[in-house]
Amino acid sequence: MVPSDNVAPPPLDVDRILADPGVRIVVCCGAGGVGKTTTAAALALRAAEEHGRRTVVLTIDPARRLAQSLGLTELDNTPRQVKGIDAEASGGELHAMMLDMKRTFDDVVLQHTDPAKAAEIFANPFYAAMSSTFAGTQEYMAMEKLGQLHARGEWDLIVVDTPPSRSALDFLDAPARLSRFLDGRMLRLLLAPARTGGRSMFTFVTAGFGMFSKVVQKVLGAQLLTDLSGFVAALDSMFGGFRQRAEQTYRILQARETAFLLVAAPEPDAVREAAYFAGRLREEKMPLAGLVLNRVHRPAVPELGPAESLAAAERLTELGGHESTAEVLRAHAALAQQAVREQRVAARFTEAFPSVPMVSVTAQPADVHDVDGLRTIGAAISRE
Q1: Measured between alpha carbons, how far is 43 from 48 in angstroms, rounded to an integer?
Q2: Given the DSSP bridges, would you call strands 358-362 and 25-29 parallel, antiparallel or unpaired?
Q3: What does pTM read for this prediction?
Q4: Closest of 136, 74, 75 to residue 105, by C-alpha
Q5: Which of 14, 26, 192, 239 has the highest CB neighbour count under 10 A?
Q6: How far apart are CA 185 and CA 190, in angstroms?
Q7: Which of 13-27, 47-61, 165-179, 358-372 has the lowest mean pLDDT?
Q8: DSSP H helical segments within the chain, as ranges?
Q9: Nearest Cα to Cα of residue 22 among 152, 148, 159, 156
Q10: HSE-up (13 A, CA, CB side) for residue 51
Q11: What is the 8-class DSSP label of residue 11?
Q12: Geometric angle at alpha carbon 227, from 221 and 231, rounded to 5°
């Protein structure tokens, strides 16, 4: 089933995007389990091999599939060159890395404070907790890392593999969320002692809030308040710079040098998530390049519908002596029915976003585990 207006979505020309020197960032986003990490790696590989671009693929997903498929023993916060790719003729290179949230935060501290202040921050228990486990830190650091890679200017193309589910777009909110945090009333109160001459946070709160301070101390504890005060005071100036950089990265994501690719499978939940992403990108004025619909099933003889196939199988069974052929027809009917269901599910997206280009990638017989498999996926996405 095609959209109700009988107009198919425009085809997605992935090679045009990968070859365009004006496109420096490709962001892949979508629900979990739809082949997003594989798609990102395949696109990065194709950009290097076929289009001669010096490419780095950054995964924010902690799964190890990317390293395995690229033949690397591990991925970390530093780009590692992928060896053995066929890019000698094109002159391209492929590098890969995985976001290490704490390491990135540590690097920010080291780059924007002096050694003594950095040592003070690293020793603070509140910093240790925030840099490792606090909600939102990963998205902040993803923006920071993307900004760092872009600012270095050594990559022709950066391919970003975002986390699964709706958190994939949380990094778009990082600048605003950080600004709200920095400009919040409670934070300004916590910063006041450090800015006005040195009384401890606990002394300040006791003097300024009376009974409220006792409640806070009882709930959080004096030591935690002291740690928090020290943490906030130490990071005060650095946070301002981080907010500015995050906002710069946000503007880069809105620019024409960025292309967002939605990745989905022809399943209701995945298509629903893709529609959510498309709506958010439209609201944020982010450049949505298209939809990659993975794991699509196509019957070998599409002109033979499921009803006709089942009728023929029934007739052969009645005649007798043709059971193998009848089983093949039944299998074809099941695949054709699945294809029809998938078309109906995909139509929910194309009806809502008819102008968004789309490419369908046929389901592969096995999972992708190596560079050859990524090469096959890249060719399929590019309709080669």
Answers
A1: 9
A2: unpaired
A3: 0.82
A4: 136
A5: 14
A6: 9
A7: 165-179
A8: 14-19, 36-51, 65-69, 101-112, 115-123, 125-133, 137-152, 170-183, 185-195, 201-209, 211-220, 222-254, 268-283, 306-319, 323-352, 371-381
A9: 156
A10: 23
A11: B
A12: 145
Rounded CA separation 74/67 (Å): 6
Q: Is the dihedral of CA 72, 73, 74, 80 positive or negative?
A: negative
Q: Which two tokens stand for residue 155?
A: 């990559």
Question: What Rg, from alpha-carbon coordinates, does the chain have?
Answer: 26
Residue 384 is predicted with a pLDDT of 58
- Length of the chain counted residue by residue: 384
In whole angstroms, what is the distance from residue 76 CA to residue 79 CA?
7
Give the amino acid at 232: V
- pLDDT for 357: 97
Q: Which residue has the tokens 């002596």?
A: 321
* Residue type present at position 62: P
> φ and ψ at 16, to 5 degrees?
-60, -40
Q: Considering only residues 66 and 289, tell me which one the structure prediction assigns the higher pLDDT.
A: 289
Distances in whole angstroms, Cα of residue 261 to Cα of each of 140, 293, 299 = 21, 10, 27
15: Cα within 13 Å, side-chain hemisphere = 10
Q: Give the pLDDT confidence of 211-260 residue by residue, as tens digits.
A: 444 444 444 455 555 666 666 666 655 666 767 777 888 899 999 999 99
Strand partners, 93: 54
Integer Cα distance of 231 and 128 in angstroms: 10
Q: 22 burial class (0-12, 13-18, 19+ CB within 10 angstroms)?
A: exposed
Distance CA 141, CA 282 (A): 24
Q: For the chain, report the end-to-end CA distance as a whole number of angstroms.
A: 25
